[in-house]
Amino acid sequence: MTLRFSRTILAATAAFALSSAALHAEMAEDELNINGDTPIVTKAPAAAHLEGHLDEVYSGWLFRTDDTRAMEQDDFDNPIMIYAEKGMDNWSVADGSEGKSCADCHGDISEGMKGVRATMPKLNATGELWSMEDYINDCRTNRMGAEAWGWDSGAMHNMTVALSVQSRGMPVNVKIDGDAAPFWEKGKEIYYTRYGQLELSCASCHEENYGNYIRADHLSQGQIQGFPVYRLKNAGVVSIHNRFKGCIRDTRAETYSPGSPEFHALELYVASRGMGLDIEGGGVRP
Questions:
Q1: Residue-wise pLDDT tens for the chain (286 aa)?
Q2: Is this model's pTM higher than 0.85 or not?
Q3: What is the CA radius of gyration of the chain?
Q4: How far apart are CA 150 and CA 56, in angstroms?
Q5: Bond prior to 121 in cis (omega within 30° of 0)
Q6: How far is CA 46 from CA 57, 60, 227, 274, 275, in A?
Q7: Which of 85, 146, 189, 215 is deepest in the core (most CB within 10 A)?
């Protein structure tokens, strides 16, 4: 069998799996209210920039099983809150040559970081597109005199979850015009580019086939307002860029790295697709 013929067979198999009506499943009609006092918008009209692509946007929470959705409804049952608590504990711990903690500059995390996650990623003072992880490491290296954390290190996961919890119930509010527009356009290009031997784009699954099953996974719209999430498959926290990496890898392509310019741009575009939804502040996904 030639390589070209093999790729054709793989692509055809993937297309069949995605298009089969027999594999369709309904999303839940539940409403997400964390701890009974924090209602979360999980369905909303699509933003104007999605005209021709989506009419409504839906949280990935709606595509999960009853048990998985229930875990996110209550912090006592949500395993990601263990990591959030570690991050909040570290907020007031001094580190580095300057002997400073995060709290020394930003004050109480519940006040100083409220709304931050909802605006990410965004341009920094020099016009670079930064994710939450970049801002954390900038503070560590330039203000605290401490070592940068790895993108998917335990300490980084703890802090990004802790910060995300502070924006629970706040609407996604990323800037996509002005100086941010070129990054948004680049992210959109990546979103619709077909990758790998399976020749699938992000849109192939999350726009054209959400609601269908591919293997054992009930495809959502791929919204990221619940990230970082606790992924049951990994038994741990998964960052936005790590999930992007896994998706492209699953197309049997050579993927980009977490923290790469490509994933920054893709993060901005995908975040903008979720405008109208609320930050979940620590989702649970399969």
A1: 444 434 443 444 454 445 444 467 789 999 999 999 999 999 999 999 999 999 999 999 999 999 999 999 999 999 999 999 999 999 999 999 999 999 999 999 999 999 999 999 999 999 999 999 999 999 999 999 999 999 999 999 999 999 999 999 999 999 999 999 999 999 999 999 999 999 999 999 999 999 999 877 899 999 999 999 999 999 999 999 999 999 999 999 999 999 999 999 999 999 999 999 999 999 999 9
A2: yes
A3: 19
A4: 36
A5: yes
A6: 5, 15, 20, 8, 7
A7: 146
In contact, 245 and 255? CB cutoff 8 Å: yes
Residue reference for tokens 């409804």: 73
- Cβ neighbours, 10 Å, residue 29: 7
Q: Please report which residue ranges of the chain form alpha helices under DSSP H.
A: 3-19, 66-73, 80-90, 102-106, 109-112, 132-138, 154-165, 181-191, 202-206, 240-250, 261-273
In the block, residue with structure tokens 């929470």: 61
State the virtual CA torsion across 204, 265, 39, 69 in degrees, nearest 10: 40
* 139: DSSP letter: I
Contact criterion met (CB below 8 Å) for 16 and 251: no
